[in-house]
Amino acid sequence: MSGKVNLVLTMLLVACGLSLVNAQYQARHLFIELERAQSQARQLDIEWAQLQLDQSTLGKHARIEEIARRDLNMTPLTAARTQYLTPEQAK
């Protein structure tokens, strides 16, 4: 009877050991995934900051005006070139 108890306890001990090894493996695997996700989040934050900087730079009025003059040959509006419509002329 004592031999059977020892065998059952040994099997239980082996099962607990295997369960522990499996739990540690899964914990390491999840930790690695967490580290990858955090690294990707940091990279995306850096890209987001860069895109915000690019957007603010590209959207400045002076840059848009300079491109309009250079590439589209546009000129600034002056009072001499402006036509004003009155309600009588619009009909």
Automatic annotation (TrEMBL):
InterPro entries linked to this entry: Cell_div_FtsL
GO cellular component term, pick one: cell division site
Gene: ftsL
Subunit structure: Part of a complex composed of FtsB, FtsL and FtsQ.
Stretches assigned to coiled coil: 27-54
Pfam families: FtsL (PF04999)
Family: Belongs to the FtsL family.
Ion transport in keyword set: no
UniProt KW keywords: Cell cycle, Cell division, Cell inner membrane, Cell membrane, Coiled coil, Membrane, Transmembrane, Transmembrane helix
Principal place of residence: membrane
Stored NCBIfam families: ftsL_broad
Compartments (UniProt record): Cell inner membrane; Cell membrane
Signal sequence segment: none
PROSITE patterns the UniProt entry points to: PROKAR_LIPOPROTEIN (PS51257)
Origin species: Duganella guangzhouensis
Membrane topology: Single-pass type II membrane protein
PANTHER family reported in the protein's UniProt record: CELL DIVISION PROTEIN FTSL
Functional description taken from the UniProt entry: Essential cell division protein. May link together the upstream cell division proteins, which are predominantly cytoplasmic, with the downstream cell division proteins, which are predominantly periplasmic.
Protein name, entry field: Cell division protein FtsL
